[in-house]
Every structure is written in C-alpha cells, then in structure tokens.
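User: Hi! I'm a student and our assignment asks us to look at how structure tokens line up with a sequence. Could you show me two examples?

Assistant: Happy to help. In each example below, the sequence comes first and the structure tokens follow. Example one:
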Amino acid sequence: MKGVLTVNVVNRSCETIATHIWDNLIVNTGYQAAAQALGGYISGDATIVKIGMGINAAPPTMADTLLVNHFTKSFTSVEYPAPVVQSDGTVIYSVQFNFTIDFLEAVGMVIYEWGLLTQDGRLFSRLTRAPIEKTNEMQLVGHWQINI
C-alpha cells in the first residue's frame, strides 16, 4: 500500500495559491487495521473516516500512533478511481478520501503533520512536511489517495 496526499491552499477569491503533493508512511496500526478489515475482524472500526492535522514536526515512523494537538474532520466524500494498469501489467486499485478544511476551521494552527484516522481512532498513515500556517483567509481542499 502507498498513500499520496494532495492539498490545495485556496483563498477567499476561490483561487488556488499553492498545491502540495506528498507521499505518506502507512504506520503499523494502519497495516493492522487493513488486515482486520479484510478479515472482518472488527467490522467498520477499521474504516478510515477522518483526516487529521497536528503540530508535531518529527519525521514519521512505523510506530507512530497519534497526532499531537490535532484537529480532525470527516471526509466530504470517498471515491474509488478507475484501476490503473502499469506497464508490467500490474493493476493499481485506489480509494480516495476528499476533504475541505474551511476558512474558519483550525485557524491559528501551524500544521506540520497530517494523518488518516480510523473509526476507532487508530492512526492509519502519517506524514510531516514544511508547515502550513492556517488562517481564516485560506481553505485547504484536497484528497488523500491510498493505492493498493
């Protein structure tokens, strides 16, 4: 599995002023949730339901289990893009989690870390990058795609 987060910073005039595309690390609890979901062990609890943002700038590790001083939000929608056939014949299947962090949400937060969270609160994946200082003059619109 591999994840890619795309974040567009949009101003009040609906203009995209920056676009960020980052790869993420799927952490141990994410792999555990995926295995349990496939086996039906904890029906629904392993479902990814929220995006989270936090203030921890430390690089991600497989042992990460939380985001620091985080803001979370449910997704606006979930999509299943068409499969992509690689040159070697391998087929990549994806799930895409779409989100919008509105103008008045997470205002004042200096966002270093991003994560996906399951229904039961487990961290599925995490990444850290240069900070985005969230103001009430910007909206963060994007999607997090997990490729299998």
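Example two works the same way, sequence first and then tokens:
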Amino acid sequence: MELKPVECPKGFWKPILNLGATGKYWVENFLLHWFYYGLQKRDKSNIFLTEWNFMIEYAFSSPQWDLEKSFRAREIWCSLIGVSFRIRNLWAAEQRYLIKQMYNQYERWAKKYLNRTFCSSEFISFIQMPGAEYLALDGLIWLDEAATDEFWNNQEIQKKLPQFLEMVWISYQSRIRQKKDYFESFKNLLKGLAETQNPYAMELQDRISIG
C-alpha cells in the first residue's frame, strides 16, 4: 500500500496469492495484515481499493483459486473478499463506503460461490456487521438464489440465518415490503428455515406478519 504504481505493487502480492489453496495459511496471513493495515488508513483508501480490486480480478482468473479444483479455496476466497472470521471483525461502520464501492465484486463473488455452505455461513455473519449493511438487502436475494438442500441442512446456517432475518426485518421492514424481490427472498428464506423445524425461524414466523 505504500508503493507507487511504477513500483509495481502486484509484484509483491501476486506471488503470495499465486500459492492459492496449497498455501492457505500464507495467503490468509497476508490478507489479514492487508485488511488490518488498509482499513485503518483512510488516506490510503484509493490505493487499498485499487489493489484489492486487482487481487480479486487475479483470483477470479487463477486456477489456484478455483473451488472446483480445490475445496480449500473457499477459505482463502472468504479472506480475500473480507468476510472470514478474523477479517470481518476489522470492519467498522465508518468503512461502509469501501464496501459500497466494492459492491460489484461482492455480487460477482456471491453469485459464483454462495452455493457453497461455508461461504454462505461466513457471508451471513459478515452482512450483520455495522459496515456491511449496504449489502444486507441484496444479500437476501443472493442467499435465496444460492439455497440448496445442503444449505438448509447446514448447522451453522441454521444458527446464523434466523438472526440475520430478524435483524434485517427490524431494520428494513418497510424497504423489504416495498420491493418485491426483497420481500420474496425474505419469505423464501424464512419459510425454508421453518420447514426444517428451526425453532428460531418458526418463532420469528409467528411473531411477524408477512402476508
């Protein structure tokens, strides 16, 4: 982040990201420090966003990051997109503008990888963070589109999704009701959970009126 463009920052991060899933711990440690430093430096936000975008574009094009080829790539992807456990706790409300500017990358990642339950679980936790509210409503649609039998049977999702649905309903009920896509996705997710006999979802379904 301290390098000028002519000093080729890519020459420093590319060899690390090129390790892919086989170098999981190296990659995750690098990304943890990348976010830890970058999220504190408001005066470096343009550089942070530029290089972060380059990293994501590189990962999308790299076979080392392909989830079809490596199961463990799901974990480094969650770190790269900033939703993994250690990294998501670094985000603060005042950094929401960064997430807003990265909307297209989040949408691209979500549509490609949220069908993996590990990614869905991490994402559900992330979009409840103060800085990530810009993604919360569209996140309803992305999660609804990604839901599979494996999704509904995942224990972590069973715990996290009811909390997210309650949070988003309390915070954005009027906006959800006003937009058909949001409302349909909300109802689909709540119904899907309730059909698994999830007690929190069933209680939430009884408590709110979504007719």
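Here is something you could point out in your write-up. The chain has two domains: 1-90, 115-211.
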